[in-house]
């Protein structure tokens, strides 16, 4: 149950961040545009409104989105790799490589998370603030350890479930089921397919395997 | 014996005054130490960008930097924001009274609590305003979108002029000026020339309203750990490189102005003393407004060095 | 020596199939651990600051804009308009597909997204009209590649991140080559359709054409918002991307009303997922090129190649071959982010224009997406048509050959890319 909460929190956070960042930049552009309307009264009201922080806020929101989104991406299996070779191996060897890859993910994100935590600890003892919003910079940088540790956890989760069930996060391609009438594509992640860029398990059919021509083997 | 390697990173091009002075320092240091020191200069943000270099120095990933003075404010040493104040110095002589005098040294000492040793101030020059319309008086700036770097003081004085300050990175400026995303900006002659801004700005007013300078700094742990004789060599090399920098900075800014005039692409407007006074009167109130941030005492101390009294304007 | 170790390790890690971002990161980590005195915390710092740049934020914004439009029924209206204009020529609906892809490319920054949007609608319709499956698949797989050549383009943003080239200028430079390639692909389709006598559509009246244009104009205007906005100075390229996202949202939800409010969180989440993956590659690629720089690799490579007396002509040939080879195993974002920072300094030393070099890389990526073993467009088409990859590869070749010919032209005729931005005074 707490896991479900974590999942939801993660999804909610990155959804919010990408939406909010868009709105922030939209507002700042509209503000700048309105400021140049050569009417004294409008200018007197608008110019003193300070939106200099918008760019910085947008960047920070996107960096946070990137860090937590990368963790979410492990769960959805979206990270691309060079899978051409291992996809041609026999299943036993292939599985070993997949597990190796997942453990490499655990190692990297865990290491980086720890360095990040050290770094944040170090920087928290200075008075460094961000340039525009003057936020304490260690809070901003907290995205690195938090995001990396979460990602580390996700890699472990995927590795465990692969070892247990032989399944990897897979993608629902039912929407791409074309050749029918009125199929308006929905929710297709073009970076999210079994396309020799993502390791795929053997329990679920791979794209290109389900047709008349069969797979590429 | 392995030489002591000093990585010196900066964010400007090799052919700017700072870029050249950094190479000069490398030359002096390596010659005088007879090869016991090796200085690796990384220009153009090759190693670290503007936003991360101070953290990298504090971590010890680079040993020396030459960031612009405005970078120390966000680090928690607000004193340095004083250098951003408009019309703080009338000319190079005024400015050197502070940067090359005891007050400047005192300010550098404040960096030590951040794990940083301040070695020297390097000039770039005075900031000028450029735009696509002629800026004769402060009122002409009203409603103009002016590009600034993130800095609270700059933001405040652009607002005092009625302009709309736009934070924008160096790399985006040329195209933003060309297309009109921003109407103008403030830069030294040297930057206006080397970044080709004169091609995309119709007017330049020689306002000399702000000072752009750098501090050469080193990681304190690294610096204190150096053998005393090496440190002495580096200090003397830095002294000479500083002199070299400040000489060529002034000269190159003048040459850049001449080149801009010669290009015929930008009309250069000079201010009469009377006109300059109106600009000063419009901008000096920002000093008072920023007292809370920078500290009244420090501003007073600078006034004292330069013999300036805002009340007498 | 160090260079050999770095690249050897990177390749070894990559071919095990782990995410490219992880193999880049692990290479850097292990190098710093074992070979330098560099404090390792600087890796953590770079992981944040590597993407702390407003220019990079165009990537998530363009992805978001594209996803709103894929959901918004824009593609269907563009297809209707395209077939009303040229559906009566040889090739009929297939030819219209090329035009529709070119139009959708002007609103989307990604090629596979273009294949998805246009292909999912037009391919079933083509089969129904009696076209062989592979004709349509060949057209859409390759025409979809226009997505990254005709602006906006995420690949161009990636290139500009790696090389500090102006995105606005790159976008402008892609227009003419994009239109020419579209014409070329159309010609191939027309020729084959005439040869095999494929069905044509009844000629539409001007009234019908006007109606179809009015229907799809809201979608098409997005390119006006982006390019017009950048060129007229209303926005910077990144701001234009954000405005595109807002505009696409408004069109999908309020103008065409093909998307419901409750679909919005899903679109946001999907876009965030894709963007985060790309941003994670960017971060680690930045880390990797930081390692390259601190080891002096680009400088060394430039010196070495120039020592060998390699001129611009032969250098570009080598670049094309390297990129086409990389296109066999990797997707465009990773290729551009890893290769561009290394090749770019050499290109500059040889006097090659940075914008021309960028367009050349983009066309290379287009080719790479259309052939196996790895080709994003190919896989998307396979998903829609249920054709196998082998069969699809055969279907694609006439158009792929045209693309290769076009690649040679772009490589050795810089004016093709540079004429428009120069005319507009952008460079
Ligand atoms: Na496009
Ligand atoms: Na390929």
TrEMBL record, chain A:
It is found in: Cell inner membrane. The chain crosses the membrane at residues 12-34, 97-123, 135-156. It is a multi-pass membrane protein. Pfam families: DctQ (PF04290). Keywords: Cell inner membrane, Cell membrane, Membrane, Transmembrane, Transmembrane helix, Transport. The keyword Ligase does not apply. InterPro entries: DctQ, TRAP_DctQ. Residues 48-162 form the Tripartite ATP-independent periplasmic transporters DctQ component domain. The keyword Transmembrane applies. It comes from the Bacteria. Belongs to the TRAP transporter small permease family. This is TRAP transporter small permease. It comes from Geomonas propionica.
Automatic annotation (TrEMBL), chain C:
Keywords: Cell inner membrane, Cell membrane, Membrane, Transmembrane, Transmembrane helix. The keyword Cell inner membrane applies. Residues 7-416 form the TRAP C4-dicarboxylate transport system permease DctM subunit domain. It is found in: Cell inner membrane. It comes from the Bacteria. It is a multi-pass membrane protein. The chain crosses the membrane at residues 6-33, 54-74, 94-123, 135-161, 167-191, 212-234, 240-256, 268-291, 303-326, 333-352, 396-420. Coiled coil: none annotated. InterPro entries: DctM, TRAP_DctM. This is TRAP transporter large permease subunit. It comes from Geomonas propionica.
